[in-house]
Design goal:
The structure holds two protein chains of two kinds. By secondary structure, chain A is an alpha+beta fold. Chain A has helices at 7-23, 41-54, 94-103, 140-150, 172-189, 215-229, 234-252, 271-276, 298-314, 317-324, 333-343, 410-421; strands spanning 2-4, 28-35, 61-64, 70-73, 82-87, 116-123, 126-134, 206-213, 260-266, 284-290, 352-356, 365-366, 369-378, 386-393, 396-404. In chain A, the strands form three sheets. Chain A has a six-stranded mixed sheet with strand order 5-6-7-2-13-12. Chain A has a six-stranded mixed sheet with strand order 8-15-14-11-9-10. A three-stranded antiparallel sheet of chain A has the order 1-4-3, with no helix packed on it. In chain A, helix 5 (172-189) packs across helix 10 (317-324), helix 6 (215-229) crosses helix 7 (234-252) and helix 7 (234-252) crosses helix 9. The N and C termini of chain A lie far apart (49 Å). Chain B is mainly alpha-helical. Chain B has helices at residues 3-18, 38-52, 69-80. The longest helix of chain B has 16 residues, at 3-18. Classes of the chains: A alpha+beta, B mainly alpha. The A-B interface holds A 226, 230-236, 266, 268-270, 272-273, 306, 309-310, 313-314, 357-358 and B 18-20, 31-32, 35-43, 45-46, 49, 57, 63, 66-67.
Chain lengths: 424, 81
């Protein structure tokens, strides 16, 4: 069985390579279910054994075919998806549970075949089920879909991700045209080194803070976005607010006022399609450039973000990035790393941002246990080691602020947390 | 072009953007209930600019005009004259 990797898959593999070199751990994230009940460990363990047996693709790894295309090599495997369990006492607050889960992201997988690891934490009559996943195998929405599949939702399918897919060794003219379009756009967007916080030496660990907005406060954010940014402008609104919040930190730290560069990953697939394509990467990117002078004013930032989204969709940049990235597959990962560095003047971004508008977790339970909330704890790419991520579950908005150790002090972390809280 | 024809074109385009059958699109349903988000909305605005030569992001029309496919079609028809 041979599942060829797309260009975007290969870029994600390069990000994993960079993260491994800089921090000792790959490009991973954790999606967490907050459950209103206790999961039977044995029952879950049995389910994981069955999935491991039926879907060896979980234990594949990248390789190169004779036609030089990278592909996901799947061989018979006796591996089983691992499940770590832990119990916390009732006094543990939400922040300490998140700290416990986020610390687990600082450990690499045990070998090249492991890409998923489950963490189950019991606390009284509640439990938290975290799934650490390798971005090379799935993206954030795919991970939600996979968890739903593990929980027994039959709507999801791994089958379409498994068949012998095309190698995409055709339509070269289209790929080169897309490459030209991307080059032109990037030359303009990546002029000069972006504004970044001073990076720490060694293998920094990653920490995070999670901010849950309940239904009432989430409605407040929807209303504020409507009033200040317009109808259906939630993503530009929270991105612009995030830029203004982080700009305050950069200003306080007296970081030289270069322009901010912010890549934003996007997945425009409807949930129906996510259910059929749970595995691998299907996203693309926007790239925003905001001058340090603009970043102090929310109105100016918002106007610039809206104009840039419009302009990038108009020229078809997200589709062109997807198409052009196929040209990178011929290069080995160390070379892709060098190319990406050269394109971005050594630092790919000022900070990362992601917004999952409509989550892919369709059920309201996991193995018959009600799901209270779903949130994401990404291991923020390093560099830049700083990121804000939003997701929604049944009308509740969650925000995760991730940072590499040593970039910010406690006071600065609290300022960002307060800023995000003020969205409601 | 009549408002009805514009409405039909908008439905066809939204069905492509959202990968949903056109028959499922109700012209009087709010766009967010059809599954339109920030990105698909901007995609629709870009289509309107290319198809009808109208820049709705800059035209200063009321938010209510964006709410349904029907109201959007009426608004485009009015501006395009």
């Amino acid at each position: 069985m041979k599942r060829y990797l797309t260009g975007i898959d290969w870029v994600v593999n390069a990000l994993d390579y960079i993260s491994r070199r800089k921090t000792g751990v790959g490009n991973t994230a954790q999606v967490v279910l907050e459950l209103e009940g206790i999961i039977g460990e044995e029952k879950l363990g049995e389910r994981l054994k069955i999935i491991s047996r039926d879907y060896p693709v979980m234990f594949g790894y990248p390789s190169r075919a004779i036609n030089l295309c990278p592909y996901w090599k799947v061989t018979s495997s006796r591996n089983t998806l691992r499940l770590n369990t832990d119990s916390l006492n009732l006094e543990s607050d939400f922040d300490s549970i998140i700290r416990n889960l986020s610390q687990r992201l600082n450990h690499p997988f045990k070998d090249k075949r492991e890409h998923i690891l489950f963490n189950l934490i019991h606390q009284g009559k509640k439990s938290f089920l975290g799934m650490i996943f390798d971005h090379r195998l799935m993206e954030a929405r795919g991970a939600e879909g996979f968890l739903d599949f593990v929980g027994g939702n039959g709507e999801f399918s791994l089958e379409e991700s498994l068949y012998d897919g095309p190698s995409h060794l055709n339509r070269w003219l289209d790929k080169f045209r897309a490459g030209r379009k991307v080059n032109r756009a990037f030359l303009h967007l990546t002029e000069g080194r972006p504004r970044v916080l001073g990076l720490t030496q060694g293998n920094p660990k990653v920490g995070c803070r999670l901010i849950n907005f309940n239904k009432e406060r989430s409605s407040g954010i929807f209303q504020n976005a409507f009033n200040e940014a317009g109808y259906l402008m939630l993503m530009p609104y929270v991105l612009s607010k995030s830029i203004v919040i982080l700009n305050q930190i950069f200003e306080d730290k007296r970081i030289p006022p270069q322009d901010y560069l912010i890549p934003v990953s996007i997945d425009t697939r409807p949930n129906d399609l996510v259910r059929k394509e749970v595995l691998f990467n299907h996203l693309s990117f926007f790239l925003f450039r905001i001058t340090a002078q603009e970043a102090g004013s929310f109105k100016t930032v918002l106007s610039s973000v809206k104009k840039q989204i419009y302009a990038q969709i108009k020229i078809g940049l997200p589709q062109a990035i997807k198409e052009a990235s196929f040209l990178m597959r011929i290069a080995p990962l160390f070379l892709v790393n060098i190319l990406l560095k050269a394109m971005s003047k050594g630092v790919p971004a000022s900070f990362s941002f992601a917004f999952i508008g409509e989550g892919a977790y369709a059920s309201d339970n996991f193995m018959q246990i009600p799901v209270k909330n779903i949130f994401h704890i990404p291991r923020v790419p390093y560099p830049p080691g700083l990121g804000i991520f939003f997701n929604q579950y049944r009308g509740n908005i969650n925000a995760t602020f991730s940072y590499a150790d040593g970039l910010l002090n406690e006071k600065e972390i609290e300022i960002v947390k307060l800023g995000i809280n003020s969205l409601a | 072009m009549t408002a009805k024809m514009i409405e039909k074109k908008l439905i066809q385009q939204l069905s492509v953007i959202l990968s949903l059958p056109a028959a499922k699109m109700k012209s009087d349903a709010p766009l967010h209930k059809l599954g339109v988000d920030s990105l698909s909305f901007v995609e629709l605005l870009v289509f309107i600019e290319k198809e009808f030569k109208i820049k709705l992001m800059e035209s200063g029309i009321a938010r209510e005009d964006f709410k349904t496919i029907h109201s959007l079609a009426e608004c485009i028809n009015e501006i395009a004259g």
